[in-house]
Amino acid sequence: MDGRLSAALETIVGRRHALTTPDEIRAYAYDGGVDRAQPLAVVLPGSSEEVAAVVRACRERDIRFVPRGAGTGLSGGAIAAKDAIVISTARLCRILEIDAANRIALVEPGVVNADVSAAARPHGLRYVPDPSSMAACTIGGNIAENSGGLHCLAYGVTSAHVLGIKIVTPDGDIEWLGGKTPDTPGYDLVGVFIGSEGTLGIATQAVLALSPIPETVQTLLGVFDSIDKATAAVSAIIARGVVPGALEMMDALATSAVEADVGAGLPTDAAALLLIDVEGLHDGLDQTVEAVASICEEHGAREVRIAHDPAQRELLWKGRKSAFGAMGRISPDYYVQDGVIPRSQLPAMLRDVAAAGTKHGLRIANVFHAGDGNLHPLILFDKEKEGELDRALAAGADILQACVSRGGSISGEHGIGLEKRDCMPLQFTPDDLAFMERLKAAFNPEDRCNPGKIFPTGRRCGESARTAKSGALDERTTALAGEPF
Amino acid sequence: MKRSKVLRSIPFDLSLRDALGERLRVLPDDCARYPVSGVTPKSVALPRDAKETALALGAATAEGATVVVRGAGTKSHRLPSPRAVDVVLDTRALDGIIEHASEDLVITVGGGTPLAKLEAALRAHGQFWPCDAPFAATATVGGTIASNAHGALRLRYGALREQILGAQIATADGALVRTGARVVKSVAGYDAHKLMAGSFGTLGVIVEATLKVAPLPEVENVVIARFRSPVTACAVARAVAASVLFPLAIVLIDDACAKRVGALLAHASTGSWLLLIRCGGNRGSVARQVADLRNACDAAGADAVSVLDHAVTPRAWSDIRELAGGAPYDSERYVVQKTTSLPTDAPAVIADARNRWPAAELSAQPGSGIVYAHIPLAALEPMARANGEPAHIEPLRRSYQRAGWSEVVLSAPPAPASVSSSLLHPSTLPAYVAAREAPTRLFRAVKAALDPAGTLDPGRLPGGV
Fold first, then answer.
1. Do A216-323 and A327-476 show the same overall fold?
2. Alpha-carbon gap, residue A131 to A463, rounded angstroms
């Protein structure tokens, strides 16, 4: 790397916080997805002003930069494509304010998701979005990806819980989008910044909305002998106007992995399980629990269990949250997809997923946000076996194509990043993409901030990047089982 | 003969006529029905579908004409007066339910679809679009989104932009683009449909919107508590908003507002405030909410607490909804100012508005920090004369900046001939005062990127965008 750039970066953030040796930066080549690329350097600024100074130093030298939180993303969003430096938010990790009377929190982007709710809990409040990686992932990354989570079904994804964002623009200016009060005048840039995958700027502070913690939660486990019956029950629950706090599904393969890993006491002989949270006031909750249980039974549930104490409930959810990591018990590698379909299409879509596995000769486990119609097929493969990674990517592409054909989306919460950028044309026309590129250019005209993400490069969806001659990536390997997602 | 004269006076007319045929109106009588903050447009475009809308925009851009997009016109006096308007584009023919995936709680409608039509279609399936937008009888879905006109349900359901899952947008250069998807969750590409919320038709025309809908609660009640002090009422509102009761909406209105709602007449009392808390859920949940709210209001010293039951709530709320969303009772005779602040500042905003405009009628969403002042024009006129231009605004503008509030004119009639002072004209009321410097450079960049020729109603948004 240019010695003058590293000197400039060291001047801004201090020598300790500018990492330039291969040993220091190796870990930053990874996220939770399948792409890999080594950054030129890694800087860890300690304030908005330092972030802005780093961005300006990069601009002066025409160096590109990639914002990065905890690196738990699944689509390569925090990977430094195209010879960029990584700007880590790891030191911007303070909760600046919990204003309980106004139900807001002011936080820095490196704050871990779960820590916000922990800080709000004494006031009877919580930060609702709860991705499975909530113990590790950060608010900045959640804003970039518009992360979902288990409880977004009833309360909305990240964008529904962010009022304002302080950003450093790709030009190095500091601006506030939105604020602590609702409906700030002018364009609502908060809504478009969230989910922009770090391509429109770097969040350096955020005003988060806090919500009351429900008085009671009841957790149900629906046990089904067929996937069709379980998915039909999900569709029926939504169609009847019951909106549970969370509504998740696991198939037999996923359940067997979870049981081998954490032993949550789940029935491994069932074809599919539904894990359902019903929450609210004590009063009337039994009625909702009863309604959900009877819909499950009407749709052929062999058994509906109700967790009666917090320990039982914790155990059931521990099983669900550890599902991705548990795949290591049954497969050397996996590749997770993230398509969304209308919930009424779930039964047919799960048959499409199974067909993609059969076609490519790979096992696929399913553990996903059924209530949102947000699939997470885990395509199991062994990267040591010739051609298996390519078959896994091809199976993933088939699944995304099926999602779009059924009126859905190629990503519900993991983002497009590097991984799915060449799948964007499945869902969007060239005009649609050109419109989005213009919007990007308003913030990031020279593609300096998180370059190479989201927009297609002209390859086929699912084509392995390492086979392409000119690519952002020097290497494409496989997901590491065991990461906490 | 008269017609050809008009044609010659409008250079862009021919290419627009190519795009629209008879659906371009240039006769003065037609144009006079489409005033924009007091300015009569030179022509009116009435596209019948998405394609015609895009063609019209492309033609206007090619000719350098300016276009103001309009639905039912309920908010068309909201922004400062334009210098001139070449074309008003009326979206009302983009009307219809395109797809209602009722079992999936998703609906796709044309941008010109009346809210009333949307709501009737949803109600037939026990559903609703939880925005509680004002002007419910006439406003369109596209206009509601474009003006970010939402009501008190945001407390439970979130901002209006979160109720939009995707859109088809006609762009200034005449393309038709889609963003988002017809499913409840999608992070593919930028959420440009969310950017449409509050953009007032300056970035594109919403020809189609996909909306997230919710099941109607099984039971709904409104708890009505009368307080002498708005400070106490606001404190109760904040406590309730942070509680496990999780109500759908909280509205605070003064006695004058209360007297405008039939169902509240019996509860209004001069000098008092009514706190209205809308509860929803199943029978057991609502019974508990009502009981706890009664106790909380009694404990806080409410003069009286009563409850509207499920049978009367929908009709009563249809009136409350208008007040809570800042709709004027009479858009010809009232200016509506909206101030947003932290919820804890709402009492100060209320006191300030009362002091500033003694004749104003006040409504608020105290749990969200939103206060509306419905100011009679007749009261503004003598104030303007007494104070001179804009003397009564400037000192407040400064204090507003200090307090971190933002203020917008939500509705202002074109100045009637009888009112001489330009102070009453919307263009001279403070367009906005924000706590922080607004990111106007980014606003301008976004506008320049999506509408580089400045076709779509340029110059009327904050920052001169």
1. yes
2. 28
